[in-house]
Amino acid sequence: MAKANGSGRPSRLFRNLNAKIAAIPMILTAMVVFVGFSLWTVVYSFTKSGLLPRRDFIGLTQYERLWSNAKWLISIQNLVIFGACMLIFSFVIGFVLACLLDQKVRFEGVFRTVLLYPFALSFVVTGVVWQWILNPDFGFQSIVRATGWESFTFDPLNNGKIVMLGVVIAALWQGTGFVMVLLLAGLRGVDDEIWKATRIDGVPAWKTYLFVVVPMLRPVFITALVIVTAGIVKVYDLVVAQTNGGPGISSEVPAKYVYDQMFLNQNLGQGFAASTMMLVTVAIIIIPWAYLEFGGRKRG
Amino acid sequence: MSKKFFFAATAAIFALGAAQAKEVEVTHWWTSGGEAAAVAEFAKAFDATGNKWVDGAIAGSGSTARPVMVSRITGGDPMGATQFNHGQQAQELVEAGLMRSLENVASEDGWRDIVHPSSILESCEIDGEIYCVPVNIHSQLWLWLSNDAFEKAGIEVPTDWNAFVESAPALREAGIQPLVIGQQPWQASLVLQNVAAAIAGPEIYARVFNEKDVEAVNGPEMEKAFAALETARELASGSNVQEWNQATTMVINGEAGGQVMGDWAQGEFAVAEKVAGEDYTCLPGLGLADIVSTGGDAFYFPAVDDPEMTAAQEELARVMISPEAQVAFNLKKGSMPVRGDVDLETANDCMRKGLDILANGTVVDGMDQVLSADAGNQLADLMIQFFNQPEMSVDDVKEGLISILEYDS
Lengths: 300, 409
Fold this sequence. Notes:
The structure holds two protein chains of two kinds.
Chain A: H1 17-44, H2 61-67, H3 70-101, H4 108-116, H5 123-133, H6 140-146, H7 163-188, H8 192-201, H9 205-216, H10 218-233, H11 237-242, H12 254-264, H13 268-295
Helix pairs in contact in A: 1-13, 2-13, 3-7, 3-10, 5-7, 7-10, 12-13
Chain B: H1 2-20, E1 23-28, H2 33-47, E2 52-57, H3 62-74, E3 81-85, H4 91-95, H5 103-109, H6 111-114, H7 119-122, E4 125-126, E5 129-130, E6 132-134, E7 142-146, H8 147-153, H9 161-173, E8 177-179, H10 185-200, H11 202-210, H12 214-218, H13 220-236, H14 244-252, E9 256-260, H15 265-271, E10 280-284, E11 291-293, E12 297-300, H16 307-321, H17 323-333, H18 349-360, E13 362-364, H19 367-370, H20 373-388, H21 394-408
Parallel strand pairs in B: 1-2, 1-3, 8-9, 11-13
Antiparallel strand pairs in B: 3-12, 4-5, 6-12, 7-9, 7-10
Helix pairs in contact in B: 2-17, 8-9, 10-11, 10-13, 10-20, 20-21
């Protein structure tokens, strides 16, 4: 790739000098914003900072309080429920939809647009829309009851035990189309020869999808996985718009906990401790994966 | 030459204009109908002084607005004046020197003599200097009852908490929710505040929340209050609304027997054209004791270098506490004035009761005044947990309360 030919061999450092100079601002941004500020946050999570940061170190007190706090524990639990449901259902439904669209159906463009459209809406809009749809007095439940099924009850947003279900439904409605489009793009990249070959061998289509095409789509799956997972970890606006953590505190999520602690409770230290825990959790997942994915072999 | 003169002239005109009408941006979270009408009274009074009130209303409740205000002040883009609930919300901003002292105005105009009850001004005082203007008092210690609901159940409207508890089975039988509590956490902590003040008594209330005295939490008086809390949970079981005003609407429509809520609930009754005493009944201190609490709103003034702005801020502070503005504002807002020397002639029955208690009865500090935002929100989370989980015991509440108080003291 690099034009390393020509008279004399410039030292490694000066190779592609222009590109390196151009990258300096981004490198600085990354170092200062992502590394520097993260470290700052970790350091201040050991302080008793209130509304303003204060260098009043109190050891692990913030973390002890964090892990004995019911709201945080509920947040973590909700994130696990939300994450698992999102990953499983958005991929299963997304993949099935992509396969269906891949059958060269008529009006494919229309279906694709309709299914992807929710993704163009922000989480706030999604949350508000689904808040109304799931409102027992005006939405889904009242419509079903109006058809004559009087005892029908589906009010997840008013029932703390199943409230996360309501949130997951809204998130799936918004995000599944995106997974579908990514996978569809991947499917379109699969060589026709493969299809011909499997057809000659008499392999049923579903088997081809599952055992031949899916492994080939690995890079696309990973891209979609990274994007969906990042969305899961930082889910905040959807919950704020849809339930605001309610009923009670039963649909709290970690990102909301961090915000609430920092800005409502005026307790920066506690918010920093919670965000550090989020960072650690993500790191625990990402680092081994990145090591397996990129560590072993060198590219180029 | 002429150009220079022209420039100087324009500059002079602009400077003059600025001196005459200083624009002061005031941020607040009063956006509902009655609230906006109330704040317009302040704006009118301030504009009459020759300055200009620039309204910086932030929609949403205080919890949405406060972070915006705080980040504007800490971020170096201060407004002219801003609302907070008096107490500890702005304390760190004051300690960091971001807010200006109003001590000169306060001592000149004798605020310490005119503000009643004095605790409301003490909440503005940090290290002996006054940093805010209290503008109103909202008591949070009220039980609102629906006369309709009790009529439907065929019983008399109770006159205190104990009678209310006894009437609960009859209400249930008539298909009426005895007590309604919305799912917002702070509503649950209002119930604790009410039982602590009315059942454990004001002295114990002060020992627990003002002094953060753990012994008092474990004492026999609080035991009674906790028992009442458990009763309240039974009465409230089955209530399934989120917002406080939805809960109030249930009381208005006679679908619920009663609600524990601050005096801002009155606004909802007024909008529904209900008459105190006929359609609904208000009991201060759960009907057991003549007490009011003194939560409320206050205005703080960020420190600025501009002397004209400083002067305008002082002007605004004087306007807000002036008798005329106090009367006009509080009548619209449905709250009580911060000075004892004004009369709200057109106040309705419930507000009269509140004003009488304020003048003669017992006054306790509101939660915002004595607890940090952190402790207050944690307590609210604890209480909503308690109300939503029948298996949670009062001992858990006691333990939780103690650890919150210990962290806060």
